[in-house]
Amino acid sequence: LNSAFESGRPTLFFYPKNLLNDRARTTAGEISEHLATLGRAVVTRPGSDLTIVGWGNTVPISEKVAELIAEGGKSVEVIDLRSLMPWDEAAVVESVKKTRRLLVVHEDNKTCGFGAEVLATVLEHLPGEPIVARRVVRPDTHIPCHFPSQLELLPGVRHTTEVAAQMLGLDLQWMDNTVKSKDGIMDLIALGSSPSDERITILEWAKEVGDHVTEGELLVDVEADKAVFEYPAPATGTLVAKLVENGASVPVGTVVGQIATEAKVREKALTREVVPQAIFRGEVAKGSSPAAAVSTTTSKPTDFAVYLNTVVSVPGSRVVGNEEAGRAAGVDSEFISSRTGILSRFWVSEGEDAITLGRDAFLKLLKVEKLKPEEIDLLICCTTTAPYATPSLASMILGAATPKDSVVPHAYDISAACSGYVYALQQGYDYLAQKPDAKVVILTSEVLSNRLAPEDPTTAIIFGDAATASLLTAGSGKKPGKGQRLLVHRPICGTDPDRSMHLVVPSAIGEEKITMEGKNVFTHGVRRMSAVAKQACEASGLTPAEVKTFIPHQANQRILDAVAKRLGVPESVVYSNIARFGNTSSSTIPICLGELLESDNLPGVTLLSAFGGGFTWGGAVLINPRS
Fold first, then answer.
1. DSSP 176-201
2. Strand partners, 488
3. Are 600 and 583 in contact (CB under 8 A)?
4. Could you give the CA distance from residue 579 to residue 480 in angstroms, rounded to a whole number?
5. Interatomic CA distance for residues 423 and 414, integer angstroms
């Protein structure tokens, strides 16, 4: 709008009302200074295998498709045109030069829709090039008022993903992951007043747990984004659970309560698209690639397996209790423990930093494994608190841990916040798939205490300092070798853009401090950690019920409890050491794994799940091959 005002030209501006209520797309402060140049597209997600072009409501659809396709091992670039006249021909052409595949997604008619202009222009600019081009559009008909019928006509995540998978040669199957009522229990689903509603707020329950309810009777007053309305009882029975209390706000689709009923459960009215779980089998569809067919999985030798051998940790040397951590923030020990589950945390002392902690963890691992630095092939360092952008923390740790002129491993940093360890597991797995005789070390080194604002109760009481080192090796899937403890299934990782800066760790020690909008991080974290944990289980052919130990990122005990509840695993299988360590970002999961390995009481199935700033998320399954 600012650019339209500045242009001085008559401008037609379309408001996609679904986006107006999308809290994930709020604009940061100083709105008057924001300018989106007319005719300049923006790449909302970079990629290399397929270009998806959209605008308005189809941009979040395209981003979700890219997220799903990433689970099939392919990379999708998403371009938001933002303006149609003028439109950014150069950006789209340049992207298609790279990917050789173009998919345009829009809600306009197929005939004479603007997507045809995009396709034609790109093909004119790339004559003779082997380009695959497709459209996902609305058929040449009107949009009905009945929303389930709209889902049949307008572009959605499911259909767009299917088209993208065909273009990329992926074998896609869907697994239904919708909530279903069973055993006489009917779930009460949070519904909006219209398809544009993203969230609802429970104003007041009209019934208490144990009350008899009659079908059609007022059950709860609800406020949505667009209206206040009454939620009637969908069946006659007894209210057995209120899962969301008065005043709480939850996303549409959340289960807010349950009714015990003998009535036949009827299909709930749809207020948004329900997307099943995407499962990629890794097969290539014939004729889908513009050139030769490309395998969708990393090539690896027959009977290949990756193992986690050892994990060691080195925390900061200073133990800080709740009383000290909360003093400047004006909160007491009881407040901290009840809100976070944390009793103490480790902070660095004078002379300690991310380099020294990482060095000590690396040397400790070498000593335990009786290895020399030159025997390591790859070192991946996960950190959000490196002292400098260059040199990398991995390079500085090697410099501190190895003699001058010695042979050192290939090394680099990875910045994926609290999910860094799972990201590194995936990269280490893929490296070993290509070099099965290699040895990979994953370092995490996080010093957050010197970036905290002591007076901020949302962050100063949460974070701690620690480094860890893990050794990954490859071997036979039939029989582990000496020292190979846990079989690693290839992790699943992904990213959601954090456009509103909900969680910020400054790049350097200084006046800027860590900031966090706890409520938004909590909500997004619980949803993502539980979802990726389920995906990791499904990718391994398992169910959460088969998990013997669940290690979520130690963010906050309330988050751990909420994720376990959503995942459907008992509290007894959830591994938590947050009371002693606090949140040490990418170091939390390996610290837990190290304790597990040291106890030598390895479960049959261990499930990892992480969520961090960015937003990044990842999950993985580890198996005890000897159980």
1. ------BTTEEEEE---SSTT--EEE
2. 306, 622
3. no
4. 34
5. 8
Q: Which one of 553, 556, 592, 624 is the catalytic residue? A: 553
Burial class (CB in 10 A: 0-12, 13-18, 19+), 268: middle
Is 146 marked active-site?
Answer: no
Where do we find the tokens 């951590």? 325
Distance CA 441, CA 443 (A): 6
Catalytic site includes residue 418: yes
DSSP assignment string, 542-588: --GGG-SEEEE--S-HHHHHHHHHHHT--GGGB---HHHH-B-GGGH
Q: For residues 553 and 465, what is the distance between their CA atoms, to the nearest angstrom?
A: 15
Blockwise average pLDDT, block size 10, the chain, 627 residues: 88 84 71 83 92 94 93 91 93 94 94 94 90 92 82 89 90 61 76 75 91 89 80 88 88 87 60 71 40 33 81 97 94 93 96 97 96 94 93 95 87 95 95 91 96 93 97 89 93 87 87 87 89 90 92 94 91 94 97 92 90 93 90
The pair of structure tokens assigned to 226 is 């667009």
Cβ atoms of 615 and 496 within 8 Å: the answer is yes
Token look-up 């290949």 returns 304
Does the active-site annotation cover 556? Answer: no
pTM value is 0.57
From 381, 382, 418, 493, active-site residue: 418
Catalytic residue among 21, 556, 583, 624: 583
Q: In what order do the strands lie in the sheet with 212-213?
A: 185-189, 255-260, 237-242, 212-213
